[in-house]
Amino acid sequence: MRILFTGGTGKAGRHVVPYLLAQGHQVLNVDLAPLEHEGVDNRIADLTDAGQVFDVMQSYANLSELEPGGGVPAFDAVVHFAAVPRILIRPDNETFRNNTLSTYNVIDAAVKNRIPKIIFASSETTYGVCFADGSRKPGYLPVDEEHPTVPEDSYAMSKVCNEATARSFQARSGANIYGLRINNVIEPHEYETLFPQFVANPEQRERNIFAYIDARDLGQMVERCLQTDGLGYQVFNAANAEHSVGLTTQALLDRFYPDVPVMREMGEEETFYSIAKARKLLGFEPIYRWRDLVDLHGV
Q: Who is most buried in 34, 177, 220, 281, counting CB within 10 A?
């Protein structure tokens, strides 16, 4: 596929883009800084400017596309990851403005250019737990895509707004538009630096509902979305299959969630951030397990 990918220079994107290239896709990364990786084309653009978004979506990706003489090729899909990535980086109103306006512009341009597949990054924060003032418990476990989304911070608010925007565009256009509620992204080098702390102090992971997503498995999930058609508008939790700490499911329930309803029997190490929907509809199956990648000797 010929893919326009926004935010490919960010923490998640710099792993997902190479994954997509390895699957044989052509990728144009649109960001405020280039991704220095062999085979990726880059375009610097401000996604809050609708004119720039429309221009990039109707442009050549590189000089070699001039050679056939048949005009500008069409994109087969858009993957929109670009965003202010959390609170406390920019002022709250700027975070909300940037994330909502850029998402509107990207999906609007994609729909008007009749691009049939649009994938956008939503967030675990939509459930209102991650950036809560104080401790916030989920309404039930495991947290699935039907769980209420009632955040109180500007970043998560922008993501909930983006989901409504995407759903509305899909209702009018009929395009396949899939949102990924991405959990805490872990890069390969972070296992040895972060996970011993998580094992020693599991309370550090409560705001992430004790979950994580390996950046490479996130690449797989995007690929599964690209290959799966006909679902209309959908949102999917994106996480790995097990907790990010060394405690069992029951030990975590006893210690952190004694009064939270558990809706079904769960596995001994099963994530509280349910990926059942992605498994069923996309065929997503995470590969990387922190227990296979971390030396816990002495922890």
A: 177
CA pair distance 185, 240, nearest whole angstrom: 10
What is the 8-class DSSP label of residue 139?
Answer: S
> Any idea which residue has 């144009």 for tokens?
28
Element (H, E) at 107: helix 92-112
Query: Each residue of 29-59: pLDDT tens digit?
Result: 999 999 999 999 999 999 999 999 999 999 9
How many angstroms separate the CA atoms of 38 and 19, rounded?
Answer: 12
Strand-pair partners of 26 = 2
pLDDT per position as a tens digit, 232-279: 999 999 999 999 999 999 999 999 999 999 999 999 999 999 999 999
Structure token pair of residue 268: 């001994």
* Contact call for residues 63 and 50 (beta carbons, < 8 A): no
With H, G, I as helix, E, B as strand and everything else as coil, classify residue 97: helix
Which secondary structure element, helix H or strand E, spans residue 178, and what is its range?
strand 176-182
What the block records as the tokens of 273 is 């951030």
How many other CB atoms are found less than 10 A from the CB of residue 56?
Answer: 20
In the numeric block, which tokens belong to residue 196? 């011993």
H-helix or E-strand containing 95? Answer: helix 92-112
CA–CA separation, 79 vs 3, rounded Å? 7
